[in-house]
Amino acid sequence: MANSKVTSMREAVGSLVPDGSVISIEGFTHLICFAAGHELIRQRKQDLTLCRLTPDVIADQLAAAGVISGLVFSWLGNPGVGSLHAVRRRIEGSDPRPIHLEEYSHFGMVARYTAGASGLPFFPLRSYRGSDLPGANPKIVTINDPYGGEPVYAVPPLNPDVSIVHVQKASAGGDAQVWGIPGCQKESAFAAGRVIVVCEEVVSDETIRSDPNRTLIPGTIVDAVVEAPGGCHPSYAQGYYDRDNPFYLEWDAISRDPDLLDAWLDEWVYSLKDHAAYREKLGTERWSALSAGDALSDPVNYGDYS
Amino acid sequence: MANSKVTSMREAVGSLVPDGSVISIEGFTHLICFAAGHELIRQRKQDLTLCRLTPDVIADQLAAAGVISGLVFSWLGNPGVGSLHAVRRRIEGSDPRPIHLEEYSHFGMVARYTAGASGLPFFPLRSYRGSDLPGANPKIVTINDPYGGEPVYAVPPLNPDVSIVHVQKASAGGDAQVWGIPGCQKESAFAAGRVIVVCEEVVSDETIRSDPNRTLIPGTIVDAVVEAPGGCHPSYAQGYYDRDNPFYLEWDAISRDPDLLDAWLDEWVYSLKDHAAYREKLGTERWSALSAGDALSDPVNYGDYS
Amino acid sequence: MSFTATEMMVVAAARQLSGVRNCFVGIGIPNLACSLAKRLIAPDLELIYESGVVGADPARLPLSIGDPSLVVGARSVTSMFDLFSFYLQRGLIDVAFLGAAQVDRNGSINTTVLGSYEKPAVRLPGSGGAVEIALNADQVFIIVNQSPRTFVEKLDFVTSPGHIGYRTGRGNGPALVVTQMGTYRFVSGEMTLTSLHPGVTREQVFEATGWEMAVDEDVVETDPPRPGELDALRHLDPDRVYLK
Amino acid sequence: MSFTATEMMVVAAARQLSGVRNCFVGIGIPNLACSLAKRLIAPDLELIYESGVVGADPARLPLSIGDPSLVVGARSVTSMFDLFSFYLQRGLIDVAFLGAAQVDRNGSINTTVLGSYEKPAVRLPGSGGAVEIALNADQVFIIVNQSPRTFVEKLDFVTSPGHIGYRTGRGNGPALVVTQMGTYRFVSGEMTLTSLHPGVTREQVFEATGWEMAVDEDVVETDPPRPGELDALRHLDPDRVYLK
Q1: D128 touches chain A (CB under 8 A)
Q2: Cα D160 from Cα D169, distance rounded (Å)
Q3: Distance from B238 to chain D by nearest Cα, in Å?
Q4: Inter-chain contact C132–A79, Cβ cutoff 8 Å?
Q5: Out of A76, A129, A133, whose CB is closest to C169?
Q6: Residues C7-62: pLDDT tens digits?
């Protein structure tokens, strides 16, 4: 079928994410591609703008490592725990240097990706009226209802240079299937100029094509496929492993102390050659504590119409 | 789980579709609910407006039976065959009476449902510039880009009183799963004031909940569930039966002659008490010619996180 | 049977969900309140999460709004575009829970910054979905710990508007506030004390409020949690993750 | 090896797909042309249907754009919203095929009515997706049977605009017209004869055109279908459903 796009994370990130790029790494609590985030740090990328609804621990790590100089976002924190201390140091104290913020709401961000993915110059939404957000971000504007109703708000398209999307299964050609929480992985991929698909496992075309409705992103728009099992840790991949909630708690203490954070980056990113080494370093005990049991979907019949 | 909404087609159509209603029966070549169309005819409904991207044989039957007085549509014909002669007689000759047309393009119709399903006062699209369609339909308007780009077009929300949606599997509570071509079944359902789900088979909550990403329409918005196996004939249900292409060819001759058409309605609709009788009358030979073989989707693992 | 202030908050919130169908749930106390109500008084309550999960039936206490246990056995799991478009903007959400770092007398909420936006003393998480929830859910329930720092005369930043008149959304705005001290409703747009939790005095409420709190003439004492409520609640959070 | 005018049309269209990636396919002749090209000269050609099927690989001749055989084994099957938004409007479609009841010298197309819109002599199907396809696909290939009734000086109704200047779409408009008589390209927006099928004369083309057809100075004779092309084509439509 399609020619293989399978490559290493080093090669994909190295060749497709030049310094200064605007990138999106989505995944709403689910399928957050830490493996790509760590490779961006390892390659000491500079001046990236990260588009992401929920910059969480991955953003704290990228901010601390000096990889990102800007955030386009709607919720900033360590979910269920508290703050991103490295990001807050940069915002509140320009420590070690400032970080540029472009702030929306969740639906504002989703609407921006959707406009970008749809070739639309704007996307309308029922939000923002009475909020101080439009005052803080002039890109959030009002738009008249051409049918004479009250005005609504609009946001502009968001078209990242590169979108890095973690999925459960992908073919060598880049057809990507996701189940569980899809977030806005699809919209961020179609909106992007280039797409890197990172998957838990590369599967055959036959597996993908046995259930074409499950394909969230077609290889048609994919530039590289990277197999990185466990690549979402400490977030999770539905059916593959659980969210490592203790890690999010541990991160709070690490992130509060710049020295601890630098030491963590040295131990867990810079000194490891790739994500396979990170996975191994985490150890079988931690992974078995995160293992997901089995709950298979009932198959459906597409029929044989040959 | 949810209380059962399962009822008969007679009851669902009788209680939820008063004369004068604006209804949608979608399904793009796939999952066209002829069973509901025939029940509307059998109950001699009056003055309905049918919203449907592709009014095809079902619209010809509803037009000939005098059930519909208007169409909101984007493509009007007998796919792969030619014309809808009963509809054309009403348009070209007001024979036996005129029919009101409100005409869009496919994406214009999809955008109307999407606006209606999203509580938006309009939906923007890149279409219509240079076409005579906006001149023929004043509801298609231009809208300025608030960011200063060139204007695009917009269409208003479409919110049918009732949407009748055929699906493959539904639970008694109305959770509906579809695979194969989804068309705009989801958008038309969320846009509607009331929703009738017609399914090939009622399945257990467990089957639905084993694959929640497959649920196209949640019982949350469903008013009635009708089990009508074979209810899409002569269109098809992916994995259940094939499209009856010979019927579409036969229909051309029937539809050209008002007397033949009336005789067909008598024989296949009025004189049958329900769709089960229609299914039986078609006969095992015809059904076996339409039988779909097996091609099962590979299951996916949602994991056990208890 | 003794109980904590947090347990009282959860129970007080849960009781307000009787008869509610579609509820937009947040993690923590709102999740506990909804789960408790579903078990005791609102079996048809539909738990909907901004992560895209509809009709969740979690087998364990979810620790995030995207917890994998919310997905398994759910009625439907959808994209965020569909959830915010077809559920929230469409007007399907009857009740939505919001938290707050600051809340004012009109139920407007700040979750963005303390201090100025450009140079904040404390950078808070921001809106998330809160602003569209506040404008589109039929009713908003606010769960917040009450103190002079949270109940303020003037917000540092209006993230999600309360009863400040005309809005593009289709919702009716804040309907209820539950704190560790009492419950409040809105009378012509102004937060009004309607019940005091056991052992709490009006004076304590006034001291914990940054403006002159209105008091309903029929203000009552909140019924303390009943044993059945406490048992069910503690069963939902056996490790007392949220029931601190 | 003898061949029909329809076979010549299909082969002439298929040859133009060399190097093309994403093709928006119609049923009938366009489907045959794309399937033929995929087998012979464009193995990476991606067949995309407005029904939402992406990367189809049908095991039989599809008789509708929603044929179930298009779905089985496809790369992706998606909603019409996603297809028109994320593929067509996004600008992913390299070539799209359109048919026509009437076409004019600029490649504008009428598929709506013959006669007036309000009181048509003949009501045609209408746009379907044609108007957005015409405006958003990078190139449009028009397949039509040529006669004075179809090649007209003035359309009764402009359903899908051709080269009439500025458009909201991102496409470049009609690039090619293939009829049973010849193939045409657009020179500064005007349809221009570039090749005559075997046995067809310029005079016959002029008689079959409702305006004064421009002729390319390098007009050639179309290469007749090669045996390999005809064998593959007839294998695709063994019952000659479309190869009448």
Answers
A1: no
A2: 12
A3: 6
A4: no
A5: A129
A6: 999 999 999 999 999 999 988 889 899 999 999 999 999 999 999 999 998 888 88
Helix (H, G, I), strand (E, B) or coil at D202: helix
pLDDT reading at B202 higher than 70: yes
Flag if C76 and B212 touch (Cβ within 8 Å).
yes
Q: Do B303 and C68 touch (CB under 8 A)?
A: yes
Q: What is the average per-residue pLDDT within B180-185?
A: 98
Indicate the residue type of B46: Q
Distance from CA of C76 to the nearest CA of B (A): 4
Give me the residues paired with residue B73 across strands.
B103
Q: For residue D52, which residues of chain B lie inside 8 Å, CB to CB?
A: 28, 181-183
Contacts of D72 in chain A (CB under 8 A): 302-306
Residues within 8 A of B (CB atoms), A 133-152 only: 141-143, 145-147, 149-150, 152
Q: Say how far apart CA B134 and CA A111 lie, in whole Å.
A: 26
Which of the residues B1, B110, B118 would you substitute to probe the C interface, choosing the one with the greatest number of C C-beta atoms within 10 Å?
B118
Q: Is the pLDDT of residue D144 over 70?
A: yes
Distances, alpha carbon C191 to alpha carbons C99, C194, C209, D70, in Å: 16, 9, 11, 59
Is the ipTM higher than 0.95? The answer is yes
What is the pLDDT of chain A when averaged over all its residues?
97
Nearest of C30, C35, C37 to residue C14 by alpha carbon? C37
Burial (CB count <10 Å: 0-12, 13-18, 19+), residue D201: exposed
The burial class, CB within 10 Å (0-12 / 13-18 / 19+), for C207 is exposed
**Residues 6 or more apart whose Cβ sits within 8 Å of residue B268:** B38, B278, B281
Residue of B nearest to A157 (CA): B147
Give yes or no for a contact between C147 and C213, defined as CB atoms under 8 angstroms apart: no
**Where is average pLDDT lowest: A27-41, B79-93, C195-209, D53-67?**
D53-67
Q: CA nearest D135: which of D100, D96, D106, D186?
A: D96
Token pair recorded at residue B12: 């669902």
Of D107, D94, D128, nearest to D186 by C-alpha is D107
Q: Please, what is the Cα angle at A194 between A192 and A198, to 5 degrees?
A: 100
Distance (Å) from the alpha carbon of C119 to chain A's nearest alpha carbon: 6
Q: Residue C203 class from Cβ within 10 Å (0-12 exposed, 13-18 middle, 19+ buried)? A: exposed
Q: What's CA A169's distance to the chain center, in Å? A: 16
CA geometry: angle at D126 spanning D45 and B128, to 5°?
Answer: 75
CA–CA distance, B131 with B138 (Å, rounded to integer): 13
Residues 185-224 of C with CB under 8 A from B: none
Q: Which residue has the tokens 């450009």?
A: C118
- Number of Cβ within 10 Å of residue A253's Cβ equals 11
Record the pTM: 0.98
Q: B131 is written with which tokens?
A: 């076409």
Strands ordered across the beta sheet of B152-155: B123-125, B152-155, B141-143
pLDDT at D9 over 90: yes
Label the pairing between strands B22-25 and B48-51: parallel
What string of DSSP letters covers B80-119? TTB--HHHHHHHHH-SSS--EEEE--HHHHHHHHHHHHHT
Do residues B251 and B235 make contact, with C-beta atoms less than 8 angstroms apart?
Answer: no
Burial class (CB within 10 angstroms; exposed 0-12, middle 13-18, buried 19+) of C98: buried
